[in-house]
Amino acid sequence: MKTITVLEKAYGKHRKFALRAFRHSLSVDLEGLEVLIGKLYTNPHSWVVVELEGEDWEVASNLIQQYYGTICSFGELKAGQVRKGKLIQTGKYGYGLYADIGIDSEERIDAFIPLHAIRHQLVKNEKIPLRDISYACGFLDNFTLEISIDRIDSIKENIQASLSSEQVQLFKKWMKLNLERLIVTGVTRKHLKKVIGETGHINDILAIERMGLLEQVVVCKEGTNAPGLLAEIGRFLPEALISLFIPEKVRAILA
Asked: CA–CA separation, 252 vs 248, rounded Å?
């Protein structure tokens, strides 16, 4: 039996539903291979561990790494490397953001994205407080994003990073499309879609885009008010964290 720890997290009340959904996704991804998917569980930092067994376990492991990414040791990190991560402790505003990027260690080692890098990449170097940028962009705990590693301090085990170019382009795309969005963490896509349907708002959205097993982005149709939609569905999602991405607010902080 071999194990692989992927860059997908399962946590909170929907943890078991996330693992169940991920098992189904893996069975589709690995269809045709001589491999058995064993137990799925989480490590102490909530990253998903997959047990594999069978003749094609190595091929399956490579495919999983390609599709989802895997955790790594601190020593495997290199400047310029791009990794997927989850924002943490976003309510503690200060000199930057922290992201858990899946470093294999007993004590979690996070990547630090300094405020000056965020300002440079997102708000044209304007001296805007991190709280305002986070509010406008919808940053919240477990927000999934790509980061680029800039500097590594091997002695202190510190990682300094910035947003990847692809991540910056995604925010610019959201701005250009000019559609309001809800960022929802802590629930599966299936459950979120059910709540939106049961509250009669399925026709108010264009899509539910998946950021992770328990991280979704609800794309509103043109004319749909995201705060209003939040007011309608929020009470049925007490286990979730929900933020808003409203292009008008982003433009306002730049004005």
From this structure: 6
Q: According to the model, what pLDDT value does residue 255 have?
A: 59
Taking 80 as the threshold, does the pLDDT of residue 173 lie above it? yes
Distance CA 198, CA 233 (A): 9
Query: One-letter amino acid identity for 214?
Result: L
Contacts of 103 by beta carbon, 8 Å cutoff, 6+ apart: 71, 72, 73, 74, 77, 109, 159
Which CATH entry fits the domain spanning 178-254: 3.30.420.40, 3.30.565.10, 3.30.70.260, 1.10.150.450? 3.30.70.260
**The CATH number of domain 74-171, selected from 3.30.70.20, 1.10.443.10, 2.40.50.140, 1.10.238.10:** 2.40.50.140
At 217, is the secondary structure helix, strand, or coil? strand
**What is the Cα–Cα distance from 1 to 37, expressed in whole angstroms?**
10
The structure's pTM equals 0.93
Q: How far apart are CA 185 and CA 13, in angstroms?
A: 11
Q: Are strands 111-114 and 96-100 parallel, antiparallel or unpaired?
A: antiparallel
Q: What is the largest CA-CA distance in the chain?
A: 59
